[in-house]
Amino acid sequence: MSSGHSKIVPLADLAGRITDGSSMALGGSFLHRGPFALVRELIRQGRKDLEVIKQSPGYDIDILCRAGALGRARAGIVAMEGNFGLAPWYRKAVEKGEIRLEEHACATLTAGLRASAFGVPFMPCGGIHGSDLPAINGWKQVEDPYGTGESVYAIPKITPDFAVILANEVSEEGDVRVYGTSHWDRIMSRSAKRVLIVAEKIAPSASFREQPELTLVPHFLVEAISVVANAGWPGSCWPHYEVDYPAVEAYMEEGEAVLKAHLAAAPEAREAAHA
After folding, report:
1. How far is residue 103's CA from residue 1's CA, in Å, rounded to a whole number?
2. CA distances for 143 relative to 65, 68, 154, 155, angstroms
3. Is the bond leading into 212 cis (omega within 30 degrees of zero)?
């Protein structure tokens, strides 16, 4: 049972906890249920040299690169999804050497996060034999000690400074509920040093006690929460809203004024302007 202490803070306060140089595991996948309102607030606050850790980033890592806020990435597949192709500002940042990239497969990044969550120095991972990734990253191949003749790669643990997740509902004390697929949010929340939540809305604490099986992250793992409607814009957050494809298309245009206009058009910016 929770303590009854409210963990809800303003979005600016939540973003203020993430300092320059911090590493962040960002929840969601591509354009779906990412904590994009907080990512944009980090840009507004002028954060620099951040690291994104995510199996399938897209808009989030791209806009951080576009704003010059990213210093490093550990990522698997990176794309804006089928309608828009690759993430252009991320690609430019990698090609120009503006960010340091540790390229992963989704499975290897998950293995590193699991190692951290389980409190072990590495996690075995198969399925990457024949890939250049082990040599590029210096991953060690380990023979099965039980004599089968098979081998795996030992992926070093990955411990993000923060896991940042967009939730459908939270209790004021910090219990987290997600509808639909949870992507890699669960393992991110268990591997990170600190967990921050952006939520679409508050649900009664009693509802979490009545249906504990729906809680993805328990309150005792959560440091703070901001409640921001449409926080996943321009992406989706099922079942609340779908991807705003015109907004993504507008974001993809070139020009410094485009990014400024995009940040100003975000739901959290419009809400602050009318506050």
Report:
1. 41
2. 39, 42, 10, 14
3. no
Domain hosting residue 262, numbered range:
11-111+157-273
Using one digit for the tens of pLDDT, what is the confidence trace for 4-29?
Answer: 689 999 999 999 999 999 999 999 99
- Report the predicted TM-score, pTM, of the whole model to 2 decimal places: 0.95
Residue 123 maps to a domain: no
User: Cβ(14)–Cβ(34) under 8 Å?
Assistant: no
CA-angle at 189, arms to 234 and 116, nearest 5°: 130
How many other CB atoms are found less than 10 A from the CB of residue 231? 27
Single-letter residue type at 39: V
User: Per the structure, how many domains does the chain have?
Assistant: 1
The two structure tokens encoding residue 170: 């939270």
Amino acid identity for residue 138 in this structure: G
Residue 114 sits at φ, ψ, to 5 deg, of -65, -40
